[in-house]
Design goal:
The structure holds two protein chains of two kinds. Chain A has eight helices and 23 strands. In chain A, the strands form four sheets. In chain A, strands 7, 8, 9, 11, 12, 13, 15 and 16 form an eight-stranded antiparallel sheet that branches. Chain A has a six-stranded mixed sheet with strand order 2-3-1-4-5-6, with helices on both faces. In chain A, strands 17-21-19-18-22-23 form a six-stranded antiparallel β-barrel. Chain A is α+β, with helices and mostly antiparallel strands. The radius of gyration of chain A is 24 Å and the shape is globular. Chain B has two domains: about 190 residues, 3-Layer(aba) Sandwich (Rossmann fold), CATH 3.40.50.620; about 80 residues, no CATH class. In chain B, about 30% of the residues lie in helices and about 15% in strands. Chain B has nine helices and ten strands. The chains are: A alpha+beta, B alpha/beta. The interface between A and B is large, with 79 and 67 residues.
Chain lengths: ~425, ~300
């Protein structure tokens, strides 16, 4: 059992968001259950409810996977159909887990969970890796993780107890995964042999694998960089709203409220407003607790400028020297999430940053083969769970940031203008 | 195997706070008519602090709204009014009593819990005020149906939640769009846990109603819970009242909210107790959540918070 979070004594390394991906039956829910129980993300009364449910279902032992079943419909069908968010803390970090279902037809959930994740934990069942290698779903989930720009992957090779903790099995799977990672473009991969059922190497090293010196899965998660909001990338500050307070003329307040999506903003910095192109200097970075000398990626602040500029919701503040480009035509990788297929005759609303603009999909260029995610086929439309390249025209200019370079600003969603459904997740490509 | 360690940036409370502020500002920018549900409970006290951080020096761009069951603890109601006045924000109160008088709420018995009836009064208030967004302090760690709910959670023209037809929510690009008569529920502290809330209360020095801290109270023991003795909840036949040092972990309708034994006199002490507790917030304190595996999900479908 881990020591509880003590913010007074240990360095607080903030929040790591990760997604768990795996095929049906490879023990994903049990692994999450194990992490939650051992890090005290689950308490006795929840365990008691799981015990009652395990008994009702006639399973003799405590079924930790029941901890992550949420909805009635899911319990009836014995499957998970929606992303669930789980929380636990270790002494140094808070974790947010997006638990996405493993069924192939629910790709949209995996994309949803991956969109906010800093890391992915990919489950591989050590007993189900045959001569032909990893399961198709493992390949598919890894490709989606790569597509969504997840930079760190931890491969949990599970059910090692069922293969006698044989080192060769683990090393063969690690080798197969390295090949897969290379093929789909995942760069930072680490492998851990575990038994979610028995708990070895999850939060503590087990005695069954003396050949594995660590780190445990939890230790890896504690150390991974949380870099979805990245201070090292260019400054991107989308204005959410203008905050005004009228007092006597001298006390009039006009501040631009927003969250810094990437980069660093400093008081006194020369900035440029997009799309107007006007320049200004940051007069102050305000918070309720006082003015800041600088704000970093992820922080919500209110910015005041040294002069009157044309700036409102939907606009961007970027660095003066930044060569950010705006445009009304873009190409993107689109993941279609709606039951009604993509229809180029229809109007969609494209939301990037804080700006919403009318958009048309001019053309579908190709579609990824859903079983391999490596071949591209010609396509005229995209259906639910399809991923493909499209060309889009927007009515108002958007910031042309490539998703691969800056996922915070290279991302957009399409909303169906008639039904208001969130229809697609888009990732801009270099243009 | 080498592990790169990034320089520390925001600590976990800074991270949560910034996310929540951004969500509140999205509501202000995207929704025509919103209200922030404020009960005087600890989660809504945190919401008010986050709203100050999001909008000051301006006023809040929405009123506060309380759905009053008529069975609230008097000190919580007094705290609610005092806090709204102190902030100079507009507080609207809509009562389950009024829904009963109108005939839209019919209770199975006069002393029945009014907790579920709040949904009716809330939906009536949403219609009356023409709200397209209601901001609430629900958290995903509270309950398993909540664990699957979106931050911007769509409600149809009947105020119903359809868990199988939720809009996917990607990145921090929220979809608040609704047609007339529909609305969204928005949960800015979705990603906070009970412990995060207490750590934030301690860090920000937020005042809470006194019953969140240890006090001596008359209680009876019933099915593993401590039930407060009040005019609404007298001891049952064969039950003996006793005086214990207790605090409340949640503050809701008197008829279904129970305290836990505690000596914690301030937020730091509550954090210490929260770190070693074995029972969830709702498990220890809510009679209404134990009725079935799916009781929260059912209530939520019907329009509950």
């Amino acid at each position: 059992m881990n020591a509880p979070l003590d913010p007074g004594r240990l360095e607080d390394r903030g929040v790591l968001r990760f997604i768990t991906a795996g095929s049906v039956d490879d023990g994903k829910s049990t692994l999450i259950g194990r992490l939650l129980v051992e890090a005290k993300g689950v308490l006795a009364d929840q365990l008691a409810a799981v015990r009652r449910a395990s008994e009702r279902r006639g399973s003799g032992e405590l079924d930790l996977s029941l901890l992550t079943d949420g909805l009635e419909a899911e319990r009836e069908q014995g499957i998970t159909i929606d992303v669930a968010y789980r929380y636990f803390s270790s002494p140094v970090r808070k974790f947010i887990v997006a638990d996405a279902p493993g069924h192939e037809q629910y790709t949209r959930n995996m994309v949803t969970g991956a969109s906010t994740a800093d890391a992915a934990v990919v489950l591989v069942d050590a007993t189900r890796v045959g001569v032909d290698g990893l399961l198709p779903q493992t390949r598919r989930h890894s490709a989606i993780a790569a597509l969504l720009g997840i930079r760190h992957v931890v491969v949990a090779v599970n059910k090692m107890d069922l293969v006698g903790w044989e080192r060769a099995v683990f090393e063969r799977i690690a080798g197969l995964y390295d090949d897969l990672a290379h093929a789909v473009g995942l760069k930072d991969v680490r492998c851990v042999p575990v038994s979610a059922l028995q708990g070895d190497n999850v939060t503590r090293l087990g005695s069954s694998s003396p050949w594995y010196a660590g780190p445990t899965l939890l230790a890896l998660l504690e150390a991974l960089p949380a870099d979805r909001a990245d201070a090292a990338r260019p400054l991107r500050f989308p204005v959410q709203l203008v905050i005004r307070a009228n007092g006597a003329a001298a006390e009039d307040y006009r501040g631009y409220a927003g969250q810094l999506w990437s980069g660093v903003l400093r008081a006194g910095q020369e900035v440029r407003i997009l799309p107007s192109g006007e320049r200004a200097r940051v007069a102050s970075i305000d918070t309720l607790d006082g003015a800041l000398a600088q704000a970093v990626a992820g922080q919500s602040v209110t910015v005041r400028l040294d002069r009157d500029v044309d700036l409102s919701r939907g606009d961007w503040i970027v660095d003066d020297a930044d060569e950010a480009k705006l445009g009304t035509a873009l190409t993107a990788e689109l993941c279609w999430l709606d039951r009604s297929p993509l229809d180029p005759r229809r109007k969609y609303l494209l939301r990037q940053g804080t700006r919403t603009s009318l958009a048309s999909v001019l053309a579908v260029e190709d579609r990824l083969d859903v079983s391999t995610l490596s071949e591209r086929r010609e396509a005229a439309a995209l259906n639910l769970n399809d991923i493909g390249r499209v060309r889009i025209a927007v009515q108002q200019p958007v910031l042309l940031d490539a998703y691969a370079r800056n996922p915070a600003t290279g991302a957009f969603i399409l909303v169906d203008a008639a039904t208001n459904q969130t229809a697609a997740a888009g990732m801009m490509r270099v243009t | 195997m080498s592990i790169e360690v990034a320089a520390p940036r925001l600590d976990h409370l800074d991270w949560l706070e910034s996310e929540s502020i951004a969500i509140l500002r999205e509501v202000a920018a995207e929704c025509a008519s919103a209200a922030l549900l404020f009960s005087g409970g600890k989660d809504s006290v945190v919401l008010l602090r986050l709203a100050q951080k999001a909008f000051r020096p301006a006023r809040f761009p929405f009123p506060l709204l309380h759905i009053d069951t008529g069975h609230n603890f008097p000190e919580v109601i007094a705290f609610r009014d005092a806090r709204a006045a102190e902030l100079g924000e507009r507080l609207l109160v809509r009562s389950v009593e009024d829904s009963i008088a109108r005939g839209s709420v019919v209770l199975p018995s006069p002393e029945a819990s009014r907790n579920a009836a709040q949904s009716v009064t809330l939906l009536e208030a949403i219609e009356e005020l023409g709200l397209d967004a209601c901001i609430g302090g629900a958290r995903r760690d509270e309950e398993k149906a909540r664990a699957k709910e979106r931050i911007f959670s769509f409600r149809d023209a009947f105020g119903q939640w359809d868990p199988k037809a939720q809009r996917p929510e990607l990145w921090n690009l929220y979809n608040a769009r609704v047609h007339k008569g529909e609305h969204v529920r928005v949960f800015p502290i979705s990603n906070w846990t009970e412990l995060d809330v207490w750590q934030y209360i301690a860090r920000e020095g937020l005042a809470l109603p006194s019953l969140y801290y240890a006090h001596r109270r008359e209680v009876v023991r019933r099915r593993g819970l401590l039930v407060p003795v009040t005019p609404l909840t007298p001891p049952g036949a064969g039950e003996t009242a006793e005086i214990r040092s207790v605090r409340f972990r949640t503050v809701g309708d008197i008829s279904c909210t129970c305290p836990v034994e505690s000596e914690a006199a301030d937020a730091e002490a509550v954090i210490a107790e929260t770190l070693v507790t074995d029972i969830t917030e709702r498990g220890a304190t809510r009679m209404d959540d134990q009725t079935s595996e799916a009781s929260m999900e059912r209530r939520k479908r019907e329009g509950y918070f």
